[in-house]
Amino acid sequence: MMPDQxxxxxxxxxNGLMAGVMYSLVALGFVLIFKxxxxxxxxxxVLALFAALTLVGLQNGQIPFAHxxxxxxxxxxxxxxxxxxxxVAIALTALVMVGLAILIEKLVLKHLVNQAPIILFMATIGLxxxxxxxxxxxxxxxxxxxxxxxxxxxxxxxxxxxxxxxxYGFFIDRLDIVATFVAILLVTALTLFSQYSKxxxxxxxxxxxxxxxxxxxxxxxxxxxxxxxxxxxxxLVAGIMWGAxxxxxxxxSLIALKALPVLMLGGFTSIPGAIVGGLIIGVxxxxxxxxxxxxxxxxxxxxxxYVLALLFLVFRPQGLFGEKIIERV
Amino acid sequence: xxxxxxxxxxxxxxxxxQTFPIKFDRYRYYAVLAVAFGIIPFVINDYWANAVFxxxxxxxxxxxxxxxxxxxxxxxxxxxGGFMAVGAYACYKLMTAxxxxxxxxxxxxxxGITAGVGVLFGLPSLxxxxxxxxxxxxxxxxxxxxxxxxxxxxxxxxxxxxxxxxDRTVLGxxxxxxxxxxxxxxxxxxxxxxxxxxxxxNLTRGTVGRKWMAIRDMDIxxxxxxxxxxxxxxxxxxxxxxxxxxxxxxFFAVYLGAAEVGEAFGIQKSFLILFMVxxxxxxxxxxxxxxxxxxxxxxxxxxxxxxxQLGWPTDLAAHIELMIVGGLIVVFxxxxxxxxAQLWRLAKEKxxxxxxxx
Lengths: 329, 358
Prior knowledge:
Chain A is mainly alpha-helical. In chain A, 70% of the residues lie in helices and 0% in strands. By secondary structure, chain B is mostly helical.
C-alpha cells in the first residue's frame, strides 16, 4: 500500500498529463504556422473559439448574424429550426475553416510578405480581435454548451481498476482520455502527411527555406492556404475538446496564451516539442498548485507556466527541441 | 515655403541642437502647449475629461514608455498591464502610508518603484530575444496581477480586494477622490505628460537613445562598437517602466479612483498599449501621442455612432467595435506598417518641397 500523499500526487500528475494534452492541441497549430511561414500566429486560440462557435451554431441551426440583422432591420430572427447531426456540422465547420484560411491569405498575408516578424505578429493580434468580434456578432456571445457525443464525466473503469490495485480510486475525466487519443491520432496523421504526401513535402521545403522552395516551383501562397487550413482544422479539434470540457465562451481564446509557454519550453519549430512542452506545463502547474498552492494563496496556475518557461529560457533560449539560434553579423 | 531650414540662421551650438530645429515645428509646439494649458482647461467638462482627455493623456504616457522599450530599444513587451499595476499599487501604498506628502511625489516614486520591478523582469532580456522575450514578459503580466490579487498587504486588507484612492490635493486643489474637478484632473495629467514627453524626447535624442537604437538595429554589431548590452537594455527597461508606472499610478488614482487589479490592469491593457505604439509608429514620440489619441477616440466615436445614432444594443456595438478595431489594425499594418508617425513624416517631406516639388 502506498502512502496517501503519494497516491494523490500520482493522480494529480495524471490529470496534469491530460491537461497538458489539451495545451498541446493548441500549441500544435502555432507550430505548424510558425514552421511554414515564420508567422507567430496569436490568433490560434481565437481560431479555436471561432471554430467551436461555428460548430455549435451550425449544430443548433442558428441563423448567423441574427443579432445584427434584428438590430438593423427590426426583425426577430434566431433559428432556422433544424438540428444538424454532429458529424455533418463538424464537416461543415472544417469547410468554413478552409474558407477562412483562403480569406486570411488573400486579404491579409498576401499584403504583408517581407514585413518584419513583429508586424506580422501584430497583424495576427488584429486578426484575433476581428475574429473574436466576428464570432460574437455571428453567433452571439452567450456561453454555449457543445455536445458532439463525446463521453464525459468520471471514468468508472479507471476508478475501479486503480481502486482494486492501489486501494484508492483515481478521478479521471473520460473526455481527457478521449482527448489524449485524439491528440495521438492527430500527431500521427500530421507526421504521415508531412512525411509521405507531396503537399506535406512541399510544406517541409517551405519551412526549410522559402526562396529555395520558390525556385523549385512550389507555390508559397498555396502552401500558406494549406497550412492555415490545417491549423484551422487543428483549432477545430482543440475547440471541440475545450468546448466540451468547459463550454464555448470567450475564455477559450485565452488558452492560446497558455500555449505560448508550452511553445517556449518545447521550441517554436518542433511538433514533438509542442507535445512534450504541453505535458511538462500541464504536470508542472498541477503539481505546483498541489504542493505549493495552499501555502501561497492558490490560483498559481495563472502564472506558473509563464514563470517556468521564463526560468527555463534563461538557461536554454531555444527551448527543448528548438533549432539552435545561430547569430551572424 | 515656410517649412524648411533655409533662412533660419543659428548663431550658437545651443540653437543648432535644439529639439525642434525648424521654426514652423517650434511654433507649432508652442501653439499646442498654449492650447493645452491655456484654452482646454477652461472649457473642459466632466464628459470630455473622463471620456477623452484624461485617458488620452494617461495612455500617451504609457505609450511613450512602451515605445522607448519596444520602438527604440527593440525589446517587445507584453507586460505593460502588469507594470501599470505596480505603479498603481505602489502609488496606493504610498498615498495611504504617507498622507502628508504631496501626491505629485507619490506618483514619481511609484514610477521609481516600477522602474525597479521593470529592471528585475528585464534581466532575462540579456539571454532571451524576440518573441521568446515577448512571451517571457507575459510572466511579469500574470505573476504581478496574481500577486496583487493574493497578497492582502497590497490592498491594505480591504474586504473587496479593491484599492480606492483617498482624497489628495495639489496646491490646494483636489486631484483624486470624488471632489475632483475635470480641470484639476486634466491639468495634473497634462503636467505629468509634458514632463514625461520632454524627458523622453531628450533621452532618445542623446547618447542613451542612440545606444538603444544601436541595440535594436543589431545587438551584436552594437556590442562590437562598444555599446554595453547589459546597461543599455536595462536602462531601456528602467526608463520604460518608470513612465509606465507613472501612467499606472495616474490611471488608478486620477482616472479610475478605485481599481480591481485583474480588471483594470489585465492582459487586454498590455495589448491596447502595444496597439497604440504600433498604430502610432514604433520609435516615435509623436507616434505614441497619435496612437493613443486614435485608440481612445475610436471607441468613443463608434459608441456614439452605433448606440447613440443607430440605437443598437450595447453588447452588439461592443462586438462590432472589436471587429472594427481588429480590422483597422490589419488594414493599418498593410497600408502603413510604420504607423501614423510615418504619415506625418511623409507630410513633412511634402511640405518641405511645397509649392515647388522639383
